[in-house]
Amino acid sequence: MKKLLLPLGFVALMMSSCSIKPATELTLSGLNPADFKSEVNNQPVGLYTLKNNAGMEVCITNFGARIVSVMAPDKNGEWKDVVLGFDNINDYKIVPSDFGAAIGRYANRIDQGRFVLDGETIQLLRNNFGHSLHGGPQGWQYQVFEARPIHETSIAMTLLSPDGDANYPGNVKATVTYTLTEDNAIDIRYEATTDKKTIINMTNHSYFNLSGDATQPITNDILYINADSFTPVDSTYMTTGEILPVADTPMDFTTPKAIGAEIDNFDYEQLKNGNGYDHNWVLNTKGDVKQLAAKVTSPVSGISLEVYTNEPGVQVYTGNFLNGTVTGKKGIVYGQRTGVCLEVQHYPDSPNKPDWPSVVLEPGQTYESECIYKFTVEK
């Protein structure tokens, strides 16, 4: 795995000299930090703002270590908020969602919530078609992280997950560090350690709408995925264990095309099973964070999102289950396919697929993962 840019000891020293300073003024995205100042599970939550010299702004809450807003420039130089979410902490608390969240302990699905570790069968809590999804019904997206600002463009979010949390073994310390770079990228780095053998697979679950208009679907956005194969799923969204080529199927995004070009072709079983795209692609990048893994472009705004990672896969989810029942920021009702998620990850249900890259974390080891979301403009 790629090493952190800064040694942990140095980061800790920097963090120790910083006081926690949530945002206090109205943000560029129009958020009022007062609407995020609260307590969840008797722990303080707030809104934190990162801003670079180019003027780009990223707002984050330590409830679920969630990205709440991302202000990026469009082809006309106007600032657009390009992620879905809520404008107050109460909605994050009462409306079940993964908007912008740091997902753990295990991103995506585990078959029937069950896996075997050193001969012991672990039964997790189940919450999705009989499977365990995104850490179960009280995954890390619903936990309060400790926020530690490093400087005005970087913040670390740390969570202590106790042994038996959602039935996962081991006391785990996990840290998500968000850094807004000067070239308009959000560099997300994950670290975790454990005192008992366990599994871990973290990701970010932001829903991107690069047009900046969340009333409009993302089906006209142009998607590229640097992957020649994918992991098919059954009718319960569970990976079958196969790895199939994308060639000559609607899963082929090696040549960029509109997300919606074939999304409703339910004669193709995988699109029927996924209710659209909700699949893991096997990246060609082989863990090289410098290689482009995926790219989405809005023809309306000209904003492009480039994705780089050292992970072996990316789950592309096209907001198929957004159904108009959730009202987000600025009072906008989120309809079907108004956001696209690009969740870099190990493959779904890897603990039950021994031939796939391992997700096991041992005591003395450090889990390290990186995802870079870089925003550019095509005029």
Key words describing this protein structure:
five-stranded antiparallel β-sheet, nine-stranded antiparallel β-sheet, 379 residues, globular, disordered N terminus, mainly beta, Beta-galactosidase, Chain A, domain 5, 28 strands, single chain, 2 domains, 3 helices
| First-to-last CA distance | 35 Å
Percent of residues in helices comes to under 10%
Largest sheet at a glance? 9 strands, antiparallel
The shape is globular
**CATH architecture title of the largest domain:** Distorted Sandwich
Assembly category: single chain
Strand order of the largest sheet: 12-13-14-15-28-24-23-18-21
CATH class of the largest domain: Mainly Beta
- CATH topology label of the largest domain: Beta-galactosidase, Chain A, domain 5
Number of helices: 3
Descriptive overview:
The chain is mostly beta strands. It is 6% helix and 35% strand. It has 3 helices and 28 strands. It is globular and about 55 Å long.
